[in-house]
Amino acid sequence: MRIYNSKIKTISLLFLLVCCTLFNSYAQNERPAHLGFIYPISTNGLDAAKFSNNLSIHALAGLSGGENGLSIYGLAGMVQGNATGLQVAGLYSKLRGDLTGVQIAGLMNQAQNANNGVQIAGIANFLEKDTPVQIAGILNKARNVQGFQNAGIVNISALNRGAQIAGIANLTKKIEGAQIAGIFNEAENVKGIQISGIVNKAKKVDGVQLSGIVNIAESSDYPIGIINLIEDGEIRIGLSSDENLTTMLSFKSGGRRLYGIVGIGSNLQYGNLPYALEAGLGLKVLEGNRFRLDIEGSNMFATNFKKGGEYTRSGIKVLPALLISQNLQIFAGPSLNYTHTKYSNGNDLSGMQLWNRERRGVYKAVHLGVTAGVNIKIN
């Protein structure tokens, strides 16, 4: 056993001697490999920051002047210059120069610039300048992104040409592409689309805003949401009734062309359907000095919150309107509807029927109808 251990030690010493000989044969600032435990315990020692390496492997943490191939750090790695190739760190990787390749860390990556590089981190990526791709479990931050940012929580950039995708929020000054967030998107200028579960906010939108609840912008022609607060758009309050005397008070808000509809009301003819809710979208087709034409698609639900008292109506309405004044509009027009109800008098709620079916207490019908009312413009 002693002879075996002695041979192992001899081989190890010879290996280190060969490595040192090879290192010394290279240019003063370039080494073929850099092996270490934790800085400065490595083959480059205290001078590690002076050398660029083709291969770096460090059990815990390492330091180098540059990397030109593969770099692996058990915990953390720091490169004082540029890096080309693949950097992998268990926790943290920092690059003070430019990245050309891929930087991967269990927790966080940090770099100066990555025009031709990709950052992938379990927690966060930080980049002072540009990158095509950032992927992180929580946060991505860069100046310009020429590709996409994908984060579990938030993405931050000054300019994004591509896509920002986040579980919670995206923040940028200018987006040319798509912002997709679970809760909130914010940008000054949007050329493309904003999609969020709750709120989209922008100054100028050249494209579409799609939100589960609210869109906010100074200018946005195609906001799709329940509430759309567009500075150069319009907000109207509507009061309408259909052929069944279902009367709705509606809030209509949107841009110059597209608007959202949300309303509450009641059926005045059938006392068993006292509560009604409505949501939908409208499109302004044309508008003159005295005439306006809108097309609206909406879904209305009426109920008494008891078994057998539910009524759902989905339809498209064509609504020509007479402009009485700048803020007052009177409208009336036909509708094409699909009705689904468990209400016992479902046949009476279906207007001029084109098709109907009743089975197991559920009544379905396609029918024509009519809607009339007034809109009051409040902005």
The SSE string, one letter per element, is HEEEEEEEEEEEEEEEEEEEEEEEEEEEEE
The main sheet comes to: 20 strands, mixed
Evaluate the radius of gyration: 33 Å
Mean pLDDT: 89
Percent range of helical residues: under 10%
Shape: elongated
Number of DSSP E strands: 29
In terms of DSSP E residues, the strand content is over 45%
Helix-strand makeup class: mainly beta
Task: List the total number of helices.
Answer: 1
Head-to-tail CA distance between termini: 93 Å
User: In terms of per-residue confidence, which ranges show pLDDT below 50 for 5 or more consecutive residues?
Assistant: 12-28
The domain tally reads 2
Features:
6% helix; 2 domains; 20-stranded mixed sheet; mainly beta; 379 residues; single chain; Porin
